[in-house]
Amino acid sequence: MAGTIVPQLNNRLSRGFYTRPAAEVARDLLGQTLLRVAENGDLIGGKIVETEAYLAEHDPASHSANGPTRRNRSMFQQPGTLYVYTIHAKYCMNVSTDRSDVGSAVLIRAIEPLWGIEQMAQARGQSDLRRLTRGPAMLCQALGITIADDGIDLLTSNKLTILPGEAIAASEIAAGPRIGISRATELPLRFYVSSSPFKSR
DNA sequence: TAAACGATCTGCT
DNA sequence: GCAGATCGTTTAT
Q1: A78: which DSSP letter?
Q2: Cβ of A61 < 7 Å from strand B?
Q3: I want to staple A26 with a disulfide (CB 3.0 to 4.6 A). Which of A53, A81, A117, A142 is the partner?
Q4: Nearest to residue A106, comparing CAs of A83, A124, A125, A131?
Q5: Which one has a higher pLDDT value, A1 or A95?
Q6: Which residues partner with A105 through β-bridges?
Q7: CB A164 within 8 A of CB A156
Q8: At A6, is the pLDDT very low, low, confident or very high (cuts 50, 70, 90)?
Q9: What's the Å distance between residue A10 CA and nucleotide B5 C1'?
């Protein structure tokens, strides 16, 4: 069982992994391991099964479309920086990609819970495995990620990182329109593992 | 400083 | 499946 394998924190995805166009990073994050290290050392996380790319240029749906602001500044930090924002009174997490100065990121929308399921259930006030991390705000609540985590570096943080996971077969990877946006709705920048019951739709 | 708007979720049918 | 809650950020006055 995958959940019994203890993740090795010294084996993180590299800076170079994130230093590529957002769509590539979004696709390649599928299957990787998102891991939260709790205050008491508990490991909480799982396999990334759904992401969305927000591009550096010509993407009116991106928070960075009108340049840097106080809110989106983490998108303009070095690749691998966490960008947490509030929307509808909830939190969503992204990872900065591409180059520091262009403001692109990948939204992590859903994971398959593998480690710390008890802790996630408690944080969510919900025992149904399929309703623990099935959307960006649910995911943040399950992992205890808040606006206070905005700007942390996934390559050096002791609290949150991404490790290499299992490879996903190309035939299992699907792309489609991003969810919940009103502009650039036609671009196929949402990527997901088509067979996973943990993707948001 | 006021108003509008979401990269959403939950509860109820 | 859908209507309604929700509140920080942005943009306009």
Answers
A1: -
A2: yes
A3: A53
A4: A83
A5: A95
A6: A54, A96
A7: no
A8: confident
A9: 42
pLDDT digits (tens, 9 = 90+) for A85-98: 999 999 999 999 99
Q: Which nucleotides of B are covered by protein (CB under 7 A)?
A: 6-10
Backbone φ, ψ for residue A87 (5° rounding): -150, 130
* Nucleic strand B near CB of residue A52 (< 7 Å): yes
Q: Does A69 contact strand C, using a CB cutoff of 7 Å?
A: yes
Q: Which of A168, A178, A153 is nearest to A95 (CA)?
A: A153
Task: Establish whether the CB of A88 is closer than 7 Å to any nucleic acid atom in strand C.
Answer: yes
Give the phi and the psi of residue A153 in degrees, each rounded to 5.
-100, 120
A54 touches strand B (CB under 7 A): yes
Distance A101 CA to C9 C1' (A): 22
Global pTM?
0.96
pLDDT digits (tens, 9 = 90+) for A169-182: 999 999 999 999 99
> Distance (Å, rounded) from C-alpha A16 to C-alpha A172?
25
Q: Which residues contact A56 (CB under 8 A, 6 or more apart)?
A: A21, A22, A64, A98, A99, A102, A103, A104
Q: How many residues does chain A have?
A: 201
Please measure the distance between the N-terminal and C-terminal CA atoms of chain A and give it in whole angstroms. 25
Tokens coding A116? 């710390």
pLDDT tier, A16 (very low <50, low <70, confident <90, very high otherwise): very high
